[in-house]
Protein backbone atom coordinates (compact mmCIF):
# COMPACT_ATOMS: atom_id res chain seq x y z
CA UNK A 1 0.00 0.00 0.00
CA UNK A 2 2.83 2.39 0.91
CA UNK A 3 4.60 1.53 -2.35
CA UNK A 4 1.44 2.30 -4.30
CA UNK A 5 1.09 5.68 -2.58
CA UNK A 6 4.68 6.59 -3.36
CA UNK A 7 4.28 5.55 -6.99
CA UNK A 8 1.08 7.58 -7.25
CA UNK A 9 2.79 10.60 -5.70
CA UNK A 10 5.66 10.23 -8.18
CA UNK A 11 3.50 9.98 -11.29
CA UNK A 12 1.17 12.78 -10.25
CA UNK A 13 4.20 14.94 -9.41
CA UNK A 14 5.46 14.37 -12.96
CA UNK A 15 2.08 15.52 -14.24
CA UNK A 16 2.23 18.60 -12.02
CA UNK A 17 5.75 19.41 -13.24
CA UNK A 18 4.72 19.37 -16.90
CA UNK A 19 1.33 20.99 -16.30
CA UNK A 20 2.61 24.02 -14.38
CA UNK A 21 5.80 24.34 -16.39
CA UNK A 22 3.78 24.54 -19.59
CA UNK A 23 0.89 26.61 -18.27
CA UNK A 24 2.94 29.22 -16.43
CA UNK A 25 5.19 29.55 -19.47
CA UNK A 26 2.33 31.18 -21.40
CA UNK A 27 2.98 34.68 -19.92
CA UNK A 28 6.63 34.34 -21.02
CA UNK A 29 5.47 33.49 -24.54
CA UNK A 30 3.25 36.58 -24.40
CA UNK A 31 6.28 38.73 -23.57
CA UNK A 32 8.20 37.18 -26.49
CA UNK A 33 5.32 37.88 -28.85
CA UNK A 34 5.22 41.48 -27.66
CA UNK A 35 8.96 42.07 -28.07
CA UNK A 36 9.62 40.24 -31.35
CA UNK A 37 6.30 39.95 -33.16
CA UNK A 38 4.60 43.30 -32.60
CA UNK A 39 1.73 42.00 -30.44
CA UNK A 40 0.06 44.89 -28.59
CA UNK A 41 -0.78 44.98 -24.86
CA UNK A 42 -4.44 44.57 -25.77
CA UNK A 43 -3.73 41.46 -27.83
CA UNK A 44 -1.60 40.03 -25.00
CA UNK A 45 -4.51 40.62 -22.62
CA UNK A 46 -6.87 38.78 -25.00
CA UNK A 47 -4.43 35.88 -25.29
CA UNK A 48 -4.06 35.57 -21.52
CA UNK A 49 -7.83 35.77 -20.99
CA UNK A 50 -8.39 33.00 -23.57
CA UNK A 51 -5.82 30.84 -21.80
CA UNK A 52 -7.12 31.35 -18.26
CA UNK A 53 -10.80 31.16 -19.29
CA UNK A 54 -10.42 27.83 -21.08
CA UNK A 55 -8.41 26.44 -18.16
CA UNK A 56 -10.98 27.44 -15.54
CA UNK A 57 -14.33 26.88 -17.23
CA UNK A 58 -13.48 23.57 -18.86
CA UNK A 59 -12.12 22.33 -15.53
CA UNK A 60 -15.71 21.91 -14.30
CA UNK A 61 -16.47 19.57 -17.19
CA UNK A 62 -13.25 17.62 -16.56
CA UNK A 63 -13.98 17.28 -12.83
CA UNK A 64 -17.47 15.93 -13.43
CA UNK A 65 -16.13 13.61 -16.15
CA UNK A 66 -13.56 12.22 -13.70
CA UNK A 67 -16.10 11.63 -10.89
CA UNK A 68 -18.39 9.72 -13.24
CA UNK A 69 -15.74 7.69 -15.06
CA UNK A 70 -13.47 6.88 -12.09
CA UNK A 71 -10.42 7.16 -14.37
CA UNK A 72 -8.54 10.31 -13.32
CA UNK A 73 -5.12 9.09 -14.48
CA UNK A 74 -6.35 8.38 -18.01
CA UNK A 75 -7.86 11.86 -18.18
CA UNK A 76 -4.67 13.36 -16.76
CA UNK A 77 -2.75 11.74 -19.62
CA UNK A 78 -5.18 13.31 -22.11
CA UNK A 79 -4.56 16.71 -20.56
CA UNK A 80 -0.80 16.29 -21.03
CA UNK A 81 -1.35 15.44 -24.71
CA UNK A 82 -3.23 18.71 -25.11
CA UNK A 83 -0.41 20.61 -23.39
CA UNK A 84 2.13 19.18 -25.81
CA UNK A 85 -0.12 19.98 -28.77
CA UNK A 86 -0.59 23.55 -27.57
CA UNK A 87 3.16 24.11 -27.34
CA UNK A 88 3.42 22.83 -30.90
CA UNK A 89 0.82 25.43 -31.84
CA UNK A 90 2.89 28.20 -30.27
CA UNK A 91 5.89 26.99 -32.26
CA UNK A 92 3.97 27.30 -35.52
CA UNK A 93 2.73 30.78 -34.55
CA UNK A 94 6.23 32.04 -33.70
CA UNK A 95 8.15 30.33 -36.52
CA UNK A 96 5.80 30.57 -39.50
CA UNK A 97 3.09 33.17 -38.85
CA UNK A 98 3.00 36.91 -38.29
CA UNK A 99 0.59 39.81 -37.94
CA UNK A 100 -3.09 39.00 -37.52
CA UNK A 101 -2.55 35.37 -38.50
CA UNK A 102 0.21 34.99 -35.92
CA UNK A 103 -2.01 36.46 -33.21
CA UNK A 104 -4.88 34.14 -34.19
CA UNK A 105 -2.54 31.13 -34.06
CA UNK A 106 -1.22 32.17 -30.65
CA UNK A 107 -4.77 32.64 -29.34
CA UNK A 108 -5.74 29.15 -30.56
CA UNK A 109 -2.62 27.66 -28.95
CA UNK A 110 -3.53 29.50 -25.74
CA UNK A 111 -6.95 27.83 -25.79
CA UNK A 112 -5.45 24.36 -26.30
CA UNK A 113 -2.90 24.82 -23.51
CA UNK A 114 -5.64 26.23 -21.27
CA UNK A 115 -7.83 23.20 -21.92
CA UNK A 116 -4.86 20.95 -21.17
CA UNK A 117 -4.21 22.65 -17.83
CA UNK A 118 -7.85 22.19 -16.81
CA UNK A 119 -7.17 18.49 -16.19
CA UNK A 120 -4.32 18.30 -13.72
CA UNK A 121 -5.23 20.17 -10.52
CA UNK A 122 -8.67 18.65 -9.80
CA UNK A 123 -7.56 15.16 -10.86
CA UNK A 124 -4.15 15.16 -9.20
CA UNK A 125 -5.60 16.52 -5.96
CA UNK A 126 -8.41 13.94 -5.98
CA UNK A 127 -5.96 11.07 -6.38
CA UNK A 128 -3.88 12.27 -3.44
CA UNK A 129 -6.96 13.07 -1.31
CA UNK A 130 -8.18 9.51 -1.82
CA UNK A 131 -4.83 7.88 -1.06
CA UNK A 132 -3.39 9.81 1.90
CA UNK A 133 -4.79 10.28 5.39
CA UNK A 134 -5.55 13.78 6.66
CA UNK A 135 -2.35 14.04 8.71
CA UNK A 136 -0.20 13.24 5.66
CA UNK A 137 -2.30 14.88 2.93
CA UNK A 138 -0.84 18.38 3.27
CA UNK A 139 2.70 17.03 3.05
CA UNK A 140 1.86 14.96 -0.05
CA UNK A 141 0.14 17.94 -1.69
CA UNK A 142 3.11 20.14 -0.78
CA UNK A 143 5.65 17.77 -2.35
CA UNK A 144 3.42 17.40 -5.38
CA UNK A 145 2.94 21.15 -5.61
CA UNK A 146 6.70 21.74 -5.30
CA UNK A 147 7.19 19.71 -8.47
CA UNK A 148 4.78 22.07 -10.18
CA UNK A 149 6.90 24.96 -8.98
CA UNK A 150 10.03 23.20 -10.28
CA UNK A 151 8.34 23.07 -13.68
CA UNK A 152 7.52 26.78 -13.51
CA UNK A 153 11.12 27.56 -12.58
CA UNK A 154 12.82 25.33 -15.14
CA UNK A 155 10.70 25.90 -18.25
CA UNK A 156 11.57 29.60 -18.84
CA UNK A 157 15.30 29.08 -18.16
CA UNK A 158 15.36 25.88 -20.26
CA UNK A 159 13.62 27.71 -23.09
CA UNK A 160 16.43 30.23 -23.35
CA UNK A 161 19.16 27.63 -22.72
CA UNK A 162 17.91 25.40 -25.57
CA UNK A 163 17.49 28.52 -27.67
CA UNK A 164 21.25 29.15 -27.44
CA UNK A 165 21.94 25.75 -29.01
CA UNK A 166 19.06 25.77 -31.50
CA UNK A 167 16.56 28.60 -31.80
CA UNK A 168 14.04 30.00 -29.33
CA UNK A 169 11.21 28.79 -31.53
CA UNK A 170 12.63 25.26 -31.62
CA UNK A 171 12.68 25.22 -27.82
CA UNK A 172 8.90 25.04 -27.91
CA UNK A 173 9.10 21.75 -29.81
CA UNK A 174 11.18 20.31 -26.95
CA UNK A 175 8.37 21.19 -24.53
CA UNK A 176 5.83 19.63 -26.88
CA UNK A 177 7.76 16.35 -26.84
CA UNK A 178 8.09 16.47 -23.03
CA UNK A 179 4.31 16.81 -22.70
CA UNK A 180 3.62 13.87 -24.98
CA UNK A 181 6.26 11.69 -23.27
CA UNK A 182 4.85 12.47 -19.82
CA UNK A 183 1.36 11.53 -21.03
CA UNK A 184 2.65 8.06 -21.98
CA UNK A 185 4.13 7.54 -18.49
CA UNK A 186 0.91 8.62 -16.76
CA UNK A 187 -1.23 6.48 -19.06
CA UNK A 188 1.00 3.47 -18.45
CA UNK A 189 0.66 3.87 -14.68
CA UNK A 190 -3.10 4.11 -15.13
CA UNK A 191 -3.12 0.74 -16.84
CA UNK A 192 -0.93 -1.08 -14.32
CA UNK A 193 -1.15 1.03 -11.17
CA UNK A 194 -3.90 2.56 -9.10
CA UNK A 195 -6.60 4.87 -10.40
CA UNK A 196 -7.42 5.91 -6.89
CA UNK A 197 -10.00 3.32 -5.80
CA UNK A 198 -10.81 5.28 -2.65
CA UNK A 199 -12.41 7.92 -4.86
CA UNK A 200 -14.64 5.63 -6.85
CA UNK A 201 -18.07 4.31 -6.16
CA UNK A 202 -18.52 0.62 -6.86
CA UNK A 203 -20.71 1.53 -9.80
CA UNK A 204 -19.16 4.45 -11.74
CA UNK A 205 -22.43 4.99 -13.56
CA UNK A 206 -24.12 5.67 -10.24
CA UNK A 207 -21.83 8.54 -9.26
CA UNK A 208 -23.35 11.23 -7.03
CA UNK A 209 -25.06 14.17 -8.69
CA UNK A 210 -23.19 17.42 -9.16
CA UNK A 211 -25.17 18.95 -6.29
CA UNK A 212 -23.24 16.89 -3.74
CA UNK A 213 -20.12 18.94 -4.48
CA UNK A 214 -21.92 22.23 -3.74
CA UNK A 215 -21.50 22.30 0.03
CA UNK A 216 -21.28 25.52 2.03
CA UNK A 217 -17.60 24.97 2.64
CA UNK A 218 -16.83 24.43 -1.07
CA UNK A 219 -18.87 27.45 -2.19
CA UNK A 220 -17.21 29.83 0.29
CA UNK A 221 -13.79 28.38 -0.44
CA UNK A 222 -14.41 28.91 -4.16
CA UNK A 223 -15.23 32.60 -3.59
CA UNK A 224 -12.09 33.09 -1.48
CA UNK A 225 -9.99 31.28 -4.09
CA UNK A 226 -11.45 33.58 -6.76
CA UNK A 227 -10.49 36.79 -4.94
CA UNK A 228 -7.04 35.45 -4.00
CA UNK A 229 -6.31 34.27 -7.52
CA UNK A 230 -7.47 37.50 -9.18
CA UNK A 231 -5.04 39.41 -6.98
CA UNK A 232 -2.11 37.03 -7.47
CA UNK A 233 -2.51 36.13 -11.15
CA UNK A 234 -3.19 39.72 -12.12
CA UNK A 235 0.37 40.43 -10.98
CA UNK A 236 2.12 37.18 -11.97
CA UNK A 237 0.71 37.15 -15.52
CA UNK A 238 2.20 40.56 -16.29
CA UNK A 239 5.42 40.45 -14.27
CA UNK A 240 7.45 38.93 -17.16
CA UNK A 241 6.29 41.77 -19.44
CA UNK A 242 6.95 44.32 -16.68
CA UNK A 243 10.50 43.07 -16.21
CA UNK A 244 11.02 42.98 -19.96
CA UNK A 245 9.83 46.50 -20.73
CA UNK A 246 9.78 48.58 -17.54
CA UNK A 247 12.33 47.40 -14.99
CA UNK A 248 14.60 44.37 -15.35
CA UNK A 249 16.13 43.01 -12.16
CA UNK A 250 19.53 44.15 -13.40
CA UNK A 251 20.74 45.60 -16.74
CA UNK A 252 20.55 42.93 -19.42
CA UNK A 253 18.94 40.33 -17.14
CA UNK A 254 17.58 37.45 -19.29
CA UNK A 255 13.80 37.18 -19.03
CA UNK A 256 13.92 33.43 -18.41
CA UNK A 257 16.27 33.85 -15.45
CA UNK A 258 14.10 36.60 -13.93
CA UNK A 259 10.98 34.46 -14.11
CA UNK A 260 12.84 31.41 -12.78
CA UNK A 261 13.88 33.37 -9.68
CA UNK A 262 10.22 34.04 -8.86
CA UNK A 263 9.20 30.42 -9.37
CA UNK A 264 12.07 29.11 -7.24
CA UNK A 265 10.28 30.68 -4.27
CA UNK A 266 7.35 28.38 -4.93
CA UNK A 267 9.59 25.31 -4.86
CA UNK A 268 10.33 26.09 -1.23
CA UNK A 269 6.90 27.49 -0.33
CA UNK A 270 4.76 24.56 -1.47
CA UNK A 271 6.27 21.84 0.79
CA UNK A 272 6.64 24.32 3.67
CA UNK A 273 2.97 25.29 3.63
CA UNK A 274 1.95 21.70 2.88
CA UNK A 275 3.77 20.55 6.02
CA UNK A 276 2.24 23.36 8.08
CA UNK A 277 -1.24 22.45 6.79
CA UNK A 278 -1.15 19.28 8.87
CA UNK A 279 -0.28 21.18 12.04
CA UNK A 280 -2.06 24.55 11.96
CA UNK A 281 -5.40 26.06 10.95
CA UNK A 282 -5.22 26.06 7.16
CA UNK A 283 -7.46 29.12 6.98
CA UNK A 284 -4.88 31.14 8.92
CA UNK A 285 -2.14 29.91 6.58
CA UNK A 286 -4.22 30.94 3.57
CA UNK A 287 -4.64 34.45 5.02
CA UNK A 288 -0.92 34.63 5.80
CA UNK A 289 0.05 33.79 2.22
CA UNK A 290 -2.31 36.42 0.80
CA UNK A 291 -0.82 39.12 3.05
CA UNK A 292 2.71 37.91 2.33
CA UNK A 293 2.16 38.01 -1.44
CA UNK A 294 0.68 41.52 -1.28
CA UNK A 295 3.46 42.99 0.88
CA UNK A 296 6.21 41.28 -1.15
CA UNK A 297 4.78 42.81 -4.32
CA UNK A 298 4.69 46.28 -2.76
CA UNK A 299 8.32 45.90 -1.76
CA UNK A 300 9.34 44.67 -5.20
CA UNK A 301 7.74 47.67 -6.91
CA UNK A 302 9.48 50.10 -4.55
CA UNK A 303 12.98 48.59 -4.22
CA UNK A 304 15.66 47.70 -6.74
CA UNK A 305 18.98 45.87 -6.59
CA UNK A 306 19.65 42.72 -4.58
CA UNK A 307 16.65 43.39 -2.33
CA UNK A 308 14.36 43.20 -5.37
CA UNK A 309 15.68 39.69 -6.10
CA UNK A 310 14.85 38.60 -2.54
CA UNK A 311 11.38 40.13 -2.79
CA UNK A 312 10.78 38.38 -6.12
CA UNK A 313 11.64 35.10 -4.40
CA UNK A 314 9.16 35.96 -1.62
CA UNK A 315 6.44 36.70 -4.17
CA UNK A 316 6.87 33.16 -5.47
CA UNK A 317 7.10 31.73 -1.94
CA UNK A 318 3.71 33.14 -0.88
CA UNK A 319 1.84 33.27 -4.21
CA UNK A 320 2.36 29.67 -5.34
CA UNK A 321 1.12 28.11 -2.11
CA UNK A 322 -2.48 27.71 -3.27
CA UNK A 323 -2.42 24.04 -4.25
CA UNK A 324 -1.58 22.35 -0.90
CA UNK A 325 -3.68 24.80 1.13
CA UNK A 326 -6.81 24.99 -1.04
CA UNK A 327 -6.84 21.28 -1.81
CA UNK A 328 -6.34 20.34 1.85
CA UNK A 329 -9.32 22.54 2.73
CA UNK A 330 -11.39 21.20 -0.16
CA UNK A 331 -10.98 17.62 1.08
CA UNK A 332 -12.51 18.62 4.42
CA UNK A 333 -15.69 20.09 2.93
CA UNK A 334 -16.98 17.47 0.47
CA UNK A 335 -17.83 13.77 0.24
CA UNK A 336 -14.92 11.78 -1.18
CA UNK A 337 -16.90 10.61 -4.24
CA UNK A 338 -17.34 14.19 -5.47
CA UNK A 339 -13.79 15.39 -4.88
CA UNK A 340 -12.84 15.94 -8.54
CA UNK A 341 -15.81 18.22 -9.19
CA UNK A 342 -15.34 20.01 -5.85
CA UNK A 343 -11.66 20.54 -6.68
CA UNK A 344 -12.69 21.85 -10.09
CA UNK A 345 -15.02 24.34 -8.44
CA UNK A 346 -12.32 25.59 -6.07
CA UNK A 347 -9.32 25.45 -8.39
CA UNK A 348 -11.09 25.81 -11.72
CA UNK A 349 -13.98 28.16 -11.13
CA UNK A 350 -12.37 29.92 -8.17
CA UNK A 351 -8.66 30.10 -8.88
CA UNK A 352 -9.13 29.82 -12.64
CA UNK A 353 -11.78 32.50 -13.20
CA UNK A 354 -9.94 34.73 -10.76
CA UNK A 355 -6.91 34.21 -12.99
CA UNK A 356 -8.98 35.51 -15.91
CA UNK A 357 -10.31 38.59 -14.13
CA UNK A 358 -7.00 39.64 -12.56
CA UNK A 359 -4.99 39.96 -15.82
CA UNK A 360 -8.01 41.53 -17.52
CA UNK A 361 -8.22 44.26 -14.87
CA UNK A 362 -4.48 44.89 -14.90
CA UNK A 363 -4.48 45.04 -18.70
CA UNK A 364 -7.37 47.51 -18.68
CA UNK A 365 -5.77 49.73 -16.02
CA UNK A 366 -2.52 49.83 -17.99
CA UNK A 367 -4.34 51.90 -20.66
CA UNK A 368 -2.51 49.88 -23.35
CA UNK A 369 0.87 51.15 -22.07
CA UNK A 370 3.41 48.84 -20.45
CA UNK A 371 4.73 51.66 -18.26
CA UNK A 372 1.33 51.91 -16.54
CA UNK A 373 1.27 48.27 -15.38
CA UNK A 374 2.11 49.41 -11.84
CA UNK A 375 -1.35 50.96 -11.54
CA UNK A 376 -2.91 47.53 -11.99
CA UNK A 377 -0.37 45.94 -9.66
CA UNK A 378 -1.31 48.30 -6.82
CA UNK A 379 -4.99 47.47 -7.36
CA UNK A 380 -4.21 43.75 -7.13
CA UNK A 381 -2.22 44.28 -3.92
CA UNK A 382 -5.30 45.86 -2.34
CA UNK A 383 -7.44 42.95 -3.56
CA UNK A 384 -4.98 40.49 -2.05
CA UNK A 385 -5.48 42.04 1.37
CA UNK A 386 -9.25 41.71 0.88
CA UNK A 387 -8.71 37.99 0.18
CA UNK A 388 -6.83 37.64 3.46
CA UNK A 389 -9.80 39.05 5.40
CA UNK A 390 -12.33 36.95 3.43
CA UNK A 391 -10.66 33.74 4.65
CA UNK A 392 -12.49 34.19 7.98
CA UNK A 393 -15.78 33.29 6.22
CA UNK A 394 -14.63 29.73 5.42
CA UNK A 395 -16.45 27.27 7.76
CA UNK A 396 -14.37 25.25 10.18
CA UNK A 397 -13.82 21.66 9.09
CA UNK A 398 -16.06 19.24 10.94
CA UNK A 399 -18.85 21.78 11.45
CA UNK A 400 -22.46 20.77 10.90
CA UNK A 401 -22.80 22.58 7.56
CA UNK A 402 -19.32 21.87 6.19
CA UNK A 403 -20.28 18.89 3.98
CA UNK A 404 -24.04 19.36 3.67
CA UNK A 405 -25.08 20.06 0.03
CA UNK A 406 -26.73 23.47 -0.36
CA UNK A 407 -29.24 22.15 -2.90
CA UNK A 408 -31.10 18.95 -2.14
Helices and strands in order, then pairings?
Blueprint: H1 2-23, H2 26-36, H3 41-69, H4 72-96, H5 99-131, H6 134-165, H7 168-192, H8 216-236, H9 239-245, H10 255-277, H11 282-302, H12 306-319, H13 322-331, H14 339-365, H15 373-390
Describe the structure in your own words.
The structure is a single chain. With about 400 residues, this protein is mainly alpha-helical. The protein is about 80% helix and about 0% strand. It contains 15 helices and no strands. The chain is globular, with a radius of gyration of 20 Å.
Brief characterization of the structure:
With 408 residues, the chain is an all-alpha fold. The protein has helices at residues 2-23, 26-36, 41-69, 72-96, 99-131, 134-165, 168-192, 216-236, 239-245, 255-277, 282-302, 306-319, 322-331, 339-365, 373-390.
Spans of at least 5 consecutive residues whose pLDDT stays below 50 are 197-206
In percent, how helical is the residue content? Answer: over 70%
What structural class do you assign from the helix and strand content?
A: mainly alpha
Total of helices: 15
Main β sheet profile: none
Overall body shape: globular
Report the count of strand segments: 0
N-to-C CA distance: 36 Å
| Percent range for β-strand residues | under 5%
What is the CA-atom radius of gyration, in angstroms? Answer: 20 Å
Nearest-integer average pLDDT: 83
Tell me the series of helices and strands, N- to C-terminal: HHHHHHHHHHHHHHH
